[in-house]
Design goal:
Structural class: alpha/beta
Strand content: 5-15%
Number of helices: 18
Radius of gyration: 24 Å
Strand order of the largest sheet: 10-9-8-11-12-13
Mean pLDDT: 96
Length: 454
C-alpha cells in the first residue's frame, strides 16, 4: 500500500487494523517490521496520501477500492488441520464491508487464499440488506521479503483476476489503471478469478520445489564427493532450467512456501487428486529432511554428543534482510540441539528474542512451561564474537552479508578445539577457514577428511 501511495500521489491510501499498537507503530519512526527501503517510502507519503488508522468503519465507507490483506494461517485443528488454510479472517472482512458500506465497492483479495475463496467473499457481500453491488477481484502479491520494495517498484507482472462479465472486467480495468501509473501495461495480466487465486499457490510451490530439488542433490553430493555448487553452475547454464533458486541450504522457511504448498496439497486431496497431493507433499517432506539432516550431522560430527557444549547460531531469520522468523529453518535446528542438551547462543542482527520464543511456542510447542530450562538453554548474543567465544562450533543458518566479513582468526582463537564450522548457507570461504584451523562442514560439499581423491 505504501508503494501505491508513493507511485500514485493523487490516490488516498489508508491502512486500517484492529490493533492500536500496530497502527501506532506504523505512525512512528520505528516501523513494526524490518524491510530495506520501506521506512523511506512510508516517510515520503505518510500524512500526505498515506494514512494508518483503527477507524475501520469510517475508512470502509469512504473507500472505492478495498484490499483484504489479512493472515490466512494453516488450520491447526478441525477438517484439513495441518494443510488447509484458515480463511476466517477473509470472511470476517467481507462481513464488515457488507455491514458498514453505504455504496458499492471493488473488493480485492490480496491475501494468499485457496482457489474459489472469492466465491465465498462474493456471497457474503451479496447478502447485504442495502441492495449494494460489489465486485470481487483477486490480486495476489509476488514480492519477496528482503527485496519487497524493489519487487514492487519493478514487478515481473501484476496479476488481476475477476469475473468475466462487463461489470467484472470494468472493475479489473479500474484496478489495472492504478498499477499503470508505474507498471507497463503489457506486464499487467488479467485472468478469471480462479486462475489468479491458484497462480499464487502454484508460483510459490514451483519455487519451493526447486529448493527441495537441489537440496535432495546436496545430500547425494555429500555421499559421493560431488560439489553441489559445481552442479548448480553446470545445470543453471541450461536456459531451460535457469540459475534462480538453485542454491542449496538448510531449507526454505518464511510465511508462504510451506503454508501455500500445504494448501495446494489439501486442494488436490479435496478434489480427489491423490497422486498430485502426494507429489507436492514430497516438497515439504524433503525440506523437513534437509533441516533434520543438518542438525543430525552436527551432532554426529561433534563426537555424537553436544550435551553441555556451547554452540553459536549465526542467524535466526529465515533469510537475510528481514526479521521474519516464521517457519525459519534455524528454529528447527535450535530445537534439535536444545533437545540434545546443548547450550545455544544465537546472534541475528534483526531478530528479537521475544519473536524467537513466540515462533518456537507456536510452531514447535516449545516454551519454558512445556520444557523447563529452555530459556536458560538459549542465549541471545549482542554480537557474533561473544556468541562464538568458548563455543565448540558455530553454524551459519542465515545468509547475512556481515557473516562473510568476520574476523575468523579471532573467532578461531576464542573457540574450544577442535573448532567446528557448519555452513548451512554456503556463503563462507571454506578453504580459508580450513587454513585457519576450522573443521568445516557445508551443505552439498565434499568432506576432505572423507574423500582423498577430490
Amino acid at each position: 500500500m505504501a508503494v501505491i501511495a508513493a507511485k500514485c500521489p493523487k490516490i488516498r491510501v489508508c491502512v486500517v487494523d484492529l490493533s492500536q499498537k500496530q497502527i501506532d507503530a506504523w505512525n512512528s519512526p520505528n516501523l513494526p517490521i524490518y524491510e530495506p527501503g520501506l521506512p523511506a517510502v512510508v516517510e515520503g507519503c505518510r500524512g500526505r496520501n498515506l494514512f494508518f488508522s483503527t477507524d475501520i468503519d469510517a475508512e470502509i465507507k469512504e473507500a472505492d477500492i478495498i484490499f483484504i490483506s489479512v493472515n490466512t494461517p494453516t488450520k491447526t485443528m478441525g477438517i484439513g488441520a495441518g494443510r488447509a488454510a484458515n480463511v476466517k479472517n477473509c470472511e470476517l472482512c467481507a462481513r464488515k464491508i457488507a455491514e458498514v458500506s453505504e455504496s458499492g465497492k471493488i473488493v480485492v483479495e490480496k491475501s494468499t487464499v485457496p482457489v474459489r475463496t472469492a466465491q465465498a467473499v462474493r456471497r457474503v457481500l451479496d447478502c447485504n440488506d442495502k441492495g449494494l453491488k460489489f465486485q470481487v477481484l483477486s490480486n495476489p502479491e509476488f514480492l519477496a521479503e528482503g527485496t519487497a520494495i524493489t519487487d514492487l517498484f519493478n514487478p515481473d507482472r501484476v496479476l488481476i483476476g475477476g469475473v468475466q462479465s462487463p461489470e467484472g472486467l470494468a472493475a479489473a480495468e479500474t484496478l489495472a489503471s492504478v498499477y499503470a501509473n508505474w507498471v507497463p501495461r503489457e506486464q499487467i495480466l488479467t485472468t478469471n478469478l480462479w486462475s489468479s487465486e491458484l497462480s499464487k499457490l502454484v508460483a510459490n510451490a514451483f519455487l519451493a520445489q526447486r529448493v527441495s530439488s537441489i537440496n535432495s542433490i546436496s545430500a547425494l553430493c555429500e555421499a559421493t564427493g560431488a560439489d553441489v555448487s559445481e552442479i548448480t553452475r553446470a545445470v543453471g547454464m541450461d536456459d531451460r532450467i535457469g540459475k534462480r533458486f538453485l542454491n542449496s541450504s538448510i531449507g526454505f522457511g518464511g510465511s508462504c512456501f510451506q503454508k501455500d504448498i500445504l494448501n495446494l496439497v489439501y486442494l488436490c486431496e479435496t478434489y480427489g487428486l491423490k497422486e498430485c497431493a502426494e507429489y507436492w507433499n514430497q516438497v515439504i517432506l524433503m525440506n523437513n529432511y534437509q533441516k533434520k539432516r543438518f542438525s543430525e550431522k552436527m551432532v554426529h560430527t561433534m563426537f555424537n554428543t553436544v550435551t553441555g557444549k556451547k554452540i553459536a547460531i549465526l542467524g535466526f531469520a529465515f533469510k537475510k534482510d528481514t526479521g521474519d522468523v516464521r517457519e525459519t529453518p534455524s528454529l528447527f535446528v535450535v530445537r534439535d540441539l536444545v533437545l540434545e542438551q546443548a547450550k545455544i547462543h544465537v546472534y541475528d542482527p534483526q531478530v528479537r528474542r521475544e519473536d524467537m520464543w513466540l515462533e518456537m511456542d507456536y510452531t514447535c510447542n516449545m516454551s519454558e512451561k512445556t520444557h523447563p530450562g529452555l530459556e536458560s538453554a538459549v542465549t541471545t548474543a549482542p554480537d557474533v564474537y561473544s556468541a562464538c567465544e568458548g563455543a565448540h562450533a558455530f553454524a551459519v543458518l542465515t545468509e547475512w552479508d556481515e557473516f562473510k566479513e568476520l574476523d575468523y582468526e579471532r573467532i578461531f582463537k576464542s573457540m574450544a578445539k577442535p573448532a567446528f564450522c557448519f555452513d548451512g548457507r554456503n556463503i563462507l570461504d571454506h578453504d580459508k577457514l580450513r587454513k585457519i584451523g576450522f573443521e568445516v562442514h557445508a551443505i552439498g560439499k565434499p568432506d576432505p577428511n572423507k574423500f582423498s581423491d577430490l
